[in-house]
Amino acid sequence: MKKILVVEDNDAVRENICEILELDGFEVISAINGKKGVILAQECHPDLILCDVMMPELDGFGMLKILMKNELTAGIPFIFLTAKAEKIDYRKGMGLGADDYLTKPFDDTELLDAIEVRLKKSSSQNNTGSGSQLISPEMLNNFLSALSLNRENRLYQKKDKVYTIGGNPYWVFKILSGKVKMAKTNEYGKELIYRILTEGEIFGYESVLCDQTYFHDTVAMEDTKIALIPTKEFLDGILSDAKLTYYFLQKSLQLNIRSNERLMEMAYGSVRSKVAKAIIMACVTDDSAHAQVVISREDLASLAGTAKETLIRTLYDFKSEKLIDIEGNSILILDREGLTTLPQ
User: Fold this and answer.
1) What is the CA radius of gyration of the chain?
2) Would you state the CATH architecture of domain 146-262?
3) pLDDT digits (tens, 9 = 90+) for 86-107
4) What is the pTM of this model?
5) Cβ–Cβ under 8 Å, residues 2 and 119
6) What CATH number belongs to 269-340?
7) Between the N and C ends of the chain, which has fewer C-beta atoms within 10 Å?
8) Which class does domain 3-134 fall in?
9) In whole angstroms, what separates CA 50 from the centre of its chain?
10) Which CA distances in Å does 329 have to 278, 294, 298, 300?
11) Rounded to an integer, what distance in angstroms lies between the CA atom of residue 169 and that of residue 177?
């Protein structure tokens, strides 16, 4: 029996959808907002998610973004349910990785047809070897847990380098607590951060798979505890199962594509758009509508690819527009949707 997660804040709409799905033979679980939806998705691993866009606490866009970051939930088919039919909302949802978009009001047939199409596509991807579908969440979670078990753990203080560009990849790393940044520095000493990683994530395997030296610097952004996994044991682990091999090769390719997209954003995006995206990227632990981001102005400027002075001016513009609030070194996101829909 296929399991479907329904995330909808309107009680009547949610109950009606659940009843329709149960009558059609699905196992149904439900949540009243995105925060609870994220928790259920991570705990129950549904076969498909139906999610409203406009919800309190955490909207549908925020929920999808969190799930796409998590290796265990990124492959779950995701359909938006919304009363908003504007093209910008459609493009935004599909751009974040949604599989479909149903505009309210919709009838039972439309709903069930959309679900059937997405489940068939998901099943087809399973059979043809899509990396995100080929490996089960349980299998990946068990592999990552076993991989970091009884390893040497090191504590890196803020600004300590985990590894530097050109270093030999003797280790693959898993973050047990804290966060790190991946960055490159040009000949004039200007740093560009293109990725921030937090608890539970592994890194360094891209260089191992390519059999190359590390191609960026990785630095602790706060006191960070990391498990060190010997390269040989990582390779032995993933090569023992074709599903794991395919998964990590695909993951490495996806990271390379995202890095190239970041470079395009840095080159051609507006300052306001780059700063807005940097704020959202820096929000690594809480994607709620009023998330607090704690990051130095230097790091945020490096993440946005702009000068610190320009960053500060833009932050105060955002504050006056009530997109954010500023409290010392902290940034409080007041309007996530406003930040994500700024013109490029």
Assistant:
1) 21
2) Sandwich (2.60)
3) 545 555 655 566 778 888 888 8
4) 0.59
5) yes
6) 1.10.10.10
7) N
8) alpha beta
9) 18
10) 15, 6, 11, 11
11) 22
What are the beta bridge partners of residue 220? 180
Place of tokens 């191609």: 215
- Closest by CA to 315, choosing from 288, 343, 293, is 293
Positions of CATH 2.60.120.10 in the chain: 146-262
Range(s) for CATH 3.40.50.2300 in the chain?
A: 3-134
Please state, in angstroms and rounded to a whole number, the distance separating the CA atoms of residues 232 and 224: 24
Question: What residue type is 263 in one-letter code?
Answer: L
CA 278-228-285 angle, 5° bins: 30
Distance CA 324, CA 321 (A): 8
Token pair of 331 as six digits: 């940034």
Outline which parts of the chain fall under CATH 1.10.10.10.
269-340
- Cα–Cα separations (whole angstroms), residue 229 to 155, 169, 208, 252, 281: 15, 11, 12, 17, 27
**Which pLDDT tens digit goes with each residue over 20-60?**
999 999 999 999 999 999 999 988 889 999 999 888 888 88
Rounded-to-10 torsion of CA 223, 296, 275, 216: -50
CB 196 within 8 Å of CB 303: yes
Backbone angles phi and psi of 45, in degrees to 5: 50, 65
Helices assigned H by DSSP within the chain: 11-23, 34-44, 60-69, 87-96, 108-128, 131-134, 137-147, 205-210, 231-239, 242-268, 271-282, 297-304, 308-320, 336-340
Neighbours of 143 (CB within 10 A): 19
